[in-house]
Amino acid sequence: MWALILGLIIFLGAHSVRIFAEGWRRQQIARIGHRAYRGLYGLVSIIGFALIVWGFGLARNNPTVIYTTPIWLKHLNALFTLVAFVLVVAAYVPNNTLKEKIGHPMLAGIKLWALGHLLAIGGLRDVILFGSFLVWAIVDFAASRRRDRRDGVVYAKGARSGNVIAVSVGGVLWVAFAVWLHGILIGVSAFM
Q1: Which of helix, strand or coil describes residue 65?
Q2: Other C-beta atoms within 10 Å of 161: how many?
Q3: Structural domain count of the chain
Q4: pLDDT digits over 99-146, tens only?
Q5: Is 0.70 surpassed by the pTM of this model?
Q6: Quick check: helix, strand or coil at residue 123?
Q7: Distance CA 123, CA 130 (A)
Q8: How far is CA 175 from CA 106, 107, 169, 170, 178, in A?
Q9: pLDDT of 73-83, one tens digit each?
Q10: Which residues 6+ apart lie within 8 Å of 64 measured at CB?
Q11: Among residues 62, 86, 104, which one ends one of the domains?
Q12: By residue range, what is the domain housing residue 117?
């Protein structure tokens, strides 16, 4: 479990610098340059992510069940993850109303993904992983919206075409991940 927890600390810690140390972040960018900062940020993130994946896999060797859930929550999780995929895609698709209304659809998608998995799976490793991501996404979403208000950020008006692209691409990616990739990458069928 130590590798999973260390990976979460490194990965989510790197992704929390802007929340808790914006001034320090600006100083480092000014000192070493934006490109070098992004390179170091990427390297730290990859190391953290690799530890999360490795640690999650190791934790399967000693499963600890904290709670069991009814089967309908697993189906609800499928719906949550579908919406999460659409929201994550909406973060990158220009001119969509999800970005206009939510501001940070990727963080909203991560919250739904994590909450859905917490509702559907009750193992200790799952609670640690998804609970950590849920708490981080809630805090980051609130901080990002606060920063938007402080800086007067207004998101571009969304259009129907942007919505269609976000929903279509998100839906296709969700199907591909749920039907094929989840079993290959995670080792568990999404529809078990």
Answers
A1: strand
A2: 12
A3: 2
A4: 999 999 999 999 999 999 999 999 999 999 999 999 999 999 999 999
A5: yes
A6: strand
A7: 10
A8: 18, 21, 10, 9, 5
A9: 999 999 999 99
A10: 123, 124, 125
A11: 62
A12: 63-192
